[in-house]
Amino acid sequence: MAKRRLIRVLEGERLTPPPLWLMRQAGRYLPEYRATREKAGNFLALCYNPELAAEVTLQPIRRFGFDAAILFSDILVIPDALGRSLRFVEGEGPRLEPLAVDEVERLDPSRAEAHLEPVIEAVRRIRSELPKETALIGFCGAPWTVATYMIAGRGTPDQAPTRLFAYREPERMDALLALLADMSADYLLRQLRAGADCVQIFESWGGVLGEAAFRRFAIQPTRRIVQRLRAAAPDARIIGFAKGAGAMLETYRAETGVDAVGLDWTVPGEIGRRLQAQGAVQGNLDPLRLVAGGRALEEGVDQVLADFGGGPLIFNLGHGITPDAPIAHVEALVRRVRDFKG
Ligand SMILES: Cc1c2[nH]c(c1CCC(=O)O)Cc1[nH]c(c(CCC(=O)O)c1C)Cc1[nH]c(c(CCC(=O)O)c1C)Cc1[nH]c(c(C)c1CCC(=O)O)C2
């Protein structure tokens, strides 16, 4: 079978128009998503229901014909599989049992494999139902980002509790991140074997770290995942999205070994093009331009294409789509990207 367009770009090819998908493309901005979530009961129940998780994964593909689907799940199923009593509070976000310093040694990953089986079953179903030209992206959170939710027990604006934990107990932090890295590598490998074409590692909170801490707590555990994956699946294609890490992205790509880097919308064209000389980039439209629509959207799309359309590019947002994005604006984005002649 011919290689899917997204994979060709991950292998360094430039395609015109570039392959296109949107982070969080299955979500609350779609009425059919809200209806399916309702049917499942709540967000987490949806994540563990293979039939309904497959359904919401496919919804944006049917509507917009994106080049890739992303498995519908959440990065926090890993701490959930460790028994950290995850729940999602409507309108507020995730809540977990905050992880105390002396609990790190007691974390037990032995139930994770069985716990995550419904997600793997969803991957199988999605692959069997997707159009053959559409790539399927698996994912996990990067260990540092997952740890920020485990330690604080919720999202925080600056990850102060986790930075303090890391500075006071660096060896324990290393141990926690290594455990999460090994669980995540096993989990990604299962996704790839179940039919994912490639995987993305979401480092949403790398931008709160200084250089030395970024190397130790973000790059090292991500490199551990990449190395374990490559040892077991040499052709695995891996996208690393380290939001807010602009000035560290070249080091991040070189030292983690990911194939492509995701750019958030603050990464300047010149920096992104330098990265593109080493391999594909993905991004980086500000999600709020999609909410605004009109000229703000057109100018934003054109800028991404002007900045990166000359090399291997996966068109995407610079972070997830927001619930207030109008569907008509997503349609306008798709038309404009697909009209690009390079
Ligand atoms: C940090 C993070 C999380 N989850 C994720 C990240 C990394 C990316 C990022 O920075 O956004 C990743 C994620 N979360 C979700 C996906 C599904 C795939 C996709 O369509 O991209 C992916 C890839 C579904 C989701 N994950 C969540 C929703 C909304 C839940 C709902 O339906 O109410 C969805 C569709 C919930 C979630 N999950 C998380 C938070 C902080 C929240 C609450 C914020 C919010 O409500 O938007 C943790």
Automatic annotation (TrEMBL):
UniProt site (Transition state stabilizer): 74
Domain of life: Bacteria
One example of a Gene Ontology biological process annotation: protoporphyrinogen IX biosynthetic process from glutamate
UniProt function note: Catalyzes the decarboxylation of four acetate groups of uroporphyrinogen-III to yield coproporphyrinogen-III.
Name of the molecule in the record: Uroporphyrinogen decarboxylase
Alphabetical keyword list: Cytoplasm, Decarboxylase, Lyase, Porphyrin biosynthesis
Main location: cytoplasm
Quaternary structure and partners: Homodimer.
Residues that coordinate or bind substrate: 24-28, 74, 149, 204, 319
Domain spans labelled Uroporphyrinogen decarboxylase (URO-D): 19-28, 137-153
Lyase among keywords: yes
Enzyme Commission no: 4.1.1.37
Pfam families assigned: URO-D (PF01208)
GO cellular component term of the entry, any: cytosol
Localization per Swiss-Prot or TrEMBL: Cytoplasm
PANTHER family listed in its UniProt record: METHYLTETRAHYDROFOLATE:HOMOCYSTEINE METHYLTRANSFERASE RELATED, UROPORPHYRINOGEN DECARBOXYLASE
Species this chain originates from: Aureimonas endophytica
HAMAP family attached to this UniProt entry: URO_D
Single annotated GO MF: uroporphyrinogen decarboxylase activity
Entries under NCBIfam families matching the protein: hemE
Family: Belongs to the uroporphyrinogen decarboxylase family.
Catalytic activity entry: uroporphyrinogen III + 4 H(+) = coproporphyrinogen III + 4 CO2
